[in-house]
């Protein structure tokens, strides 16, 4: 009996602790989002009705128009566009690629990397040299590389618990592979797709050329294609690979960041940003990357408004343009902020997918980090255990120079690279509850930042 | 400069801490599973080649034979069957249901609940009375219920962060709804499916009858169907609902738990169980529920063996039979343990889906819990933050009487009830990395239990 009384008492105490004003409000935020959020239906529209949104494309412009209208409909205090000039790369007709092994011709799925040049109209056919690293390539030397197609085949490390670390450990092949290969006289590069899954989806992504080095075409090959090519090369190192791609870089195009704002009631000059990027690659629907982050950011402001929470500080939902192949929106946003002497105290970005929340990475001083980490007891009941030093987000990165504290929303990373930059990053790959929990987590953090500053 | 040195030093210290023998072994376990695990391909076979495995069915028998063979192939020290008699309920021909609203006839998807009786051959057609709780039903009284079909339509609460709590708050309608309705003279019951998703999949599950109360047929209706029926009832309370189901309870059938064992080298009489249940509902493939838990349990033993880890204590992977509609395997296993005077120090069950790991729930004394909670620093780097009092698992539950400490593997719960007991609980709904991380988490816990006891 005594034990039961004790238990009842300790439950009362826990209950009482849970009644701090912050915890009550956070509970309300989650209830609102999990009950009334339209964010999943917004995402359906953005991904299925508008679709791919590569910078400079018609889809990107439609997304600008639609999100502006959407935020206006929410009754935010101000919705405005920020003009930025963006790179305008187009894929052109679908790529063709095959392995020619004697008389055997095996078609494999590839996708030109963003920023790559086209092949000659008739395509390129050459012998293949497979490497796993730039060092291995350099050790081979020009004698073995000249005239060939370099095939980068180092997989993402499946043992990394955080798949973004595995990505970081492999993506040099995609970003700089063409330049490294061209220095040694290669005529093209084929890069294993950045995913741990074995399937037939090529994953595109950006690549860069260095000045003074020949521009050779570069494409991603599906992981199954990479495995097959590697296996066949072991049997016949003399086989050839053919590919043809039709991409092109057009003159820079005019585009926009889209910004929705709720004015602060006490400190309107202190701004808190929550955002994602509106552009996406062209071969999927940009559902996880980063339609989710955009819809969540608008939902943060919608939910706070619906609850009648009047922020002390000014809150902005920002749809950044051109994260994927230029970052012009992120850079432009920070430039505007600087020019207008705006004081951005904090920025939160969601660009790691619409998955179940795990926490937030923080970029700031140890004191600023400590203040946010002290909120953990308020956030851990919602599955947000991982709050600490980490990365913010590409688009909000340029705000760091202005002293803004950056927060990167950290959802579970296990499924992200299954979809990332591939044709299957579609609406159906996003789970409604997971998307909403992300929005609620971001809203809870924004609420705490607004209440307590940093 | 000084700051950098300090940073370097603190990284060294962290690195040194990470080198405890336990943390090194746990890292090896994760590496082994994430690199070499066949568990996803095993699950493919179990779900796609064998398929549904309801107790007493041909699929269940095939699963017994195949998992026995699979564990024998792994070279475990002993693989054996434990005979249990199981309920043998069969669905029969697919159900038919429609709403008859004047001349309008709208077909809706239903699935008979496990254990339900059939309707008469010509089906049942009756007026409908919608309620959200037993209290509401009782308040209406026999006068309003008699001769009608009771429609239970209280949704799972979407604001519960742990969806299992939301399930627990709604599942009384499925389990006891028929009996409660029959007491007031109802002729059948229709229950809103246990999921927060709005779709067209009915979710089956078990129900019970009380003695002395008429056995009336009971079925689950899809959430979209429930929404539609509810809306139409508001316009026309006099509409009728028709359903026909053809299920039947046959005599109990002979079946088995399947047990694979690695003998302990120091304390062979202390047994640690890791398990899931081999049976599944008949309308899906039982991928998350609970093919995942079974394949993970075998993977725990395979991975430890592959790493050359010789356990001090005896480890058993147990495929329990009949969790879904009888728990005869779980009860039988504990009975055998008692009869044979076996000392089960701990049991770990995975029956919450093959999703990304969050932690473990513990059932034991406060001292035993504290010992396991003290392992958190070893497990948190792998995303296992939620280690504390909780629930173990249905199948291992009966072992509690023998003093066994129970651990329930706790994956993220957000997507579970999208699939649970529905036709879409199929292989494709399981993610390879998430499945493997679950297996590695269970293996890490089993390793710690083996090394340190409780």
From TrEMBL, chains A, B:
PANTHER family: CARBOXYPEPTIDASE Q, PROTEASE FAMILY M28 PLASMA GLUTAMATE CARBOXYPEPTIDASE-RELATED. Residues 257-437 form the Peptidase M28 domain. It comes from Larkinella arboricola. It holds the Pfam family Peptidase_M28. It is found in: Endoplasmic reticulum; Golgi apparatus; Lysosome; Secreted. It comes from the Bacteria. Transmembrane segments: none annotated. Homodimer. The monomeric form is inactive while the homodimer is active. InterPro entries: CPQ (IPR039866), Peptidase_M28 (IPR007484). Residues 1-18 form the signal peptide. The keyword Heme does not apply. This is Carboxypeptidase Q.
